[in-house]
Amino acid sequence: MSAQLASVEIAVPAETAFAYLADGMKQGEWALGSWDRRQIGEGLFAGTSLFDGRELLIRLDAVPSLMLVEYHVGRTPDALAPLVWARVVPGPVVGLGAERCVLTLVVWRSLGDSEEAWALLGHSFPTEVQMIKGRLELGF
């Protein structure tokens, strides 16, 4: 398997969800592999994994016209790869009202991922989309 995904319907407009996902500091509220988020450079963030305590670096590339955020991740600034995507689909596109949207997170498997690490992502992504849903719907 080359990718894993998790998807959820959220009771907020797509623009609200996209703005939240495109905020590098807000990602520290829901990304289990990058807690205690801090900005360490222009557009570059770091966080600590709740699983193994290691630091992960992240650079976001937000594309508003597609409501897509690519998260370039890695252990060093020169080794970042766009392995995580968040895509927000406006409610009307999928038969929902304008005050709803659908979020899908996708993670691509890196060649260096162990079977254990890859399986862990399969468990954490469904949790992360629920964390995002809760924060957005409750107005965190």
3D architecture notes:
There is one protein chain. This protein is 23% helix and 39% strand. By secondary structure, the chain is of the alpha+beta class. The radius of gyration is 15 Å and the shape is globular. The chain starts with a strand and ends with a helix. The model has no long low-confidence stretch (mean pLDDT 93).
Name the features.
140 residues, alpha+beta, 7-stranded antiparallel beta sheet, 2 helices
Quick synopsis:
This protein is α+β, with helices and mostly antiparallel strands. It has helices at residues 14-21, 115-138, and strands at residues 3-10, 35-41, 44-48, 55-63, 68-74, 81-90, 101-108.
User: Can you summarize the main beta sheet?
Assistant: 7 strands, antiparallel
So, CATH architecture of the domain at 3-21 and 61-138? 2-Layer Sandwich
Q: Main sheet: which strands, in order across?
A: 1-7-6-5-4-3-2
Mean pLDDT level: 93
Give the topology, please.
Layout: E1 3-10, H1 14-21, E2 35-41, E3 44-48, E4 55-63, E5 68-74, E6 81-90, E7 101-108, H2 115-138
